[in-house]
């Protein structure tokens, strides 16, 4: 018995009953119907929610449910009217019994139809729950891919910044090399010029010494 006397039933009892009846993903079904998994659930509200789901899913069931309810209401009214008549009805007067059987048949037919629709709704809710679980997995995978993409984009951005810095450093080094080569060329030219000047000065001094030596030799021979 789900009802604790207040019109409410515990979530645990409802889930246990559904699982005993072979319903899988019971928690997912309650969540899909927007019921809280903690505390207690209003059983009338749960029944109405399930019926509304069935009515929205199946127009044939909706028509059958309305017809059965109308027929049961009519049979119950006739049964009440018969109960108010003479209590000494003979065996030949059997309409109340026949009406009771008709009502039971109508209720049983409606119950079977309701059970089929509940099973169909359960399958749809399980499928919806599985789809939502799959979508959660897909969303989680997409978020991981997004984070991984952002991570690599950040690494690529840092690498590009390092490449730009290296290019700037390379350009600065190239400029420094050109400058050093120009200074080297100037130094070599200056060195050659000084060397030529020194050689000219040495040759001039050598010529003067040779003239002096020749003059001394001439004086000695005289």
Task: Give keywords.
mainly alpha, 222 residues, rod-shaped
Q: How are the SSEs ordered, and which strands pair?
A:
Layout: E1 8-10, H1 11-20, H2 26-32, E2 40-42, H3 43-57, H4 59-83, H5 95-221
Antiparallel strand pairs: 1-2
Helix pairs in contact: 2-5, 3-4, 4-5
Strand share of the residues?
Answer: under 5%
Sheet having the most strands: 2 strands, antiparallel
The helix-and-strand class reads mainly alpha
Report, as a whole number of angstroms, the end-to-end distance: 160 Å
How many distinct helices?
A: 5
How are strands sequenced across the largest beta sheet?
1-2
Helical residue percent?
over 70%
The counted number of beta strands is: 2
- Quaternary arrangement of the chains shown? single chain
Which series of helices and strands comes N to C?
EHHEHHH
Name the shape in a single word.
rod-shaped
Given as residue ranges, the uncertain stretches (5+ residues, pLDDT < 50) are 86-99
CA radius of gyration is 54 Å
- What's the average pLDDT? 78
Protein name: Ninein
Coiled coil: 104-197
GO cellular component, one term: centriole
Keywords: Coiled coil, Cytoplasm, Cytoskeleton, Phosphoprotein
What does this structure look like?
The structure is a single chain. By secondary structure, this protein is mainly alpha-helical. The chain has a domain at 8-82 and 95-146. The chain contains five helices and two strands. It has helices at residues 11-20, 26-32, 43-57, 59-83, 95-221; strands at 8-10, 40-42. It has a two-stranded antiparallel ribbon with strand order 1-2. The longest helix is centred in the last third of the chain and has 127 residues, at 95-221. The termini are far apart.
């Amino acid at each position: 018995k789900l009802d604790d006397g207040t019109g409410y039933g515990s979530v645990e009892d409802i889930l246990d009953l559904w699982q005993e009846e072979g319903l899988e993903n019971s928690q997912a079904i309650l969540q899909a119907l927007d019921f809280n998994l903690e505390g207690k659930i209003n059983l009338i509200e749960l029944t109405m929610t399930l019926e509304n789901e069935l009515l929205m899913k199946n127009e044939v069931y909706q028509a059958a449910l309305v017809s059965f309810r109308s027929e049961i209401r009519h049979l119950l009214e006739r049964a009440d009217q018969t109960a108010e008549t003479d209590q000494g009805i003979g065996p030949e007067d059997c309409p109340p019994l026949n009406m009771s059987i008709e009502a039971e048949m109508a209720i049983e037919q409606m119950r079977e139809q309701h059970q089929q629709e509940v099973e169909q709704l359960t399958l749809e809710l399980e499928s919806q729950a599985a789809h939502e679980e799959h979508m959660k997995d897909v969303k989680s995978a997409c978020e991981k891919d997004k984070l991984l993409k952002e991570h690599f984009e950040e690494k690529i951005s840092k690498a590009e910044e390092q490449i730009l810095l290296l290019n700037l450093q390379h350009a600065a080094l190239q400029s420094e090399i050109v400058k050093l080569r120009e200074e080297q060329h100037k130094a070599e030219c200056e060195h050659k010029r000084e060397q030529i000047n020194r050689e000219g000065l040495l040759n001039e001094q050598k010529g003067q010494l040779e003239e002096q030596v020749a003059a001394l030799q001439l004086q000695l021979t005289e």
